[in-house]
Write a structure and sequence with these properties.
kinase activity, 51% helix, single chain, five-stranded parallel beta sheet, binds cytidine-5'-monophosphate, alpha/beta, EC 2.7.4.25, Rossmann fold
Amino acid sequence: MRVIAVDGPAASGKGTLARRLAQHFGLAHLDTGLLYRAVGWQVRDDIGNSAAAVQAARAFDIDWLRIPELRGEAAGQAASKISAIPQVREALLEFQRSFCRQPLGAVLDGRDIGTVICPEAPAKLFVTASVEVRAGRRHRELQAREIPSIYAEVLQDLIERDARDSQRTAAPMKAADDALLLDTSGLDADQAFDAALSYISPRI
Ligand code: C5P
């Protein structure tokens, strides 16, 4: 099985890394955060309504992944709330597992790929960076996209999101026992890629 599981908190660099790894090894790539963002976006006006979120997750449609607003902060916040609901996670499980089973192999990035979605993956990374470094990256990225951003607010948002993701009972964010911990605080994208590559290459 040629599967690379890339987990870690928001703005750790895991998405960029996962895309590069997929390209390098010729594997399909799934950003699983987009699934939760798509479901959160569907119910954004009624975010406290768990039944509606579960219904939306069960009706999940791959076309939802093309909604441009999914990359924004509002969708991220909505995703972080509905992703704590066990039945939402359950409804999105099979889509992710079947993505792992593609004959050509796959890279999936998220929070629980190495622990829940694909525990048998031969190569697992848990990508981290200090919350200040991540907030700085996210802040600069938003500014580069000409989206108004205040560093202190981005930092607060990440702190809250980390707490929700790691403290929930349903598939909390955590490193698999057999994952490589990759702290990108002092690394640029190329250095993170090189470190990941030397770990993964002998494994897949
Ligand atoms: O990675 P991204 O920021 O797009 O994820 C948005 C939210 O979706 C996360 O804060 C997390 O709550 C949820 N998520 C999850 N499990 C995944 C991927 C994302 O719970 N595998």
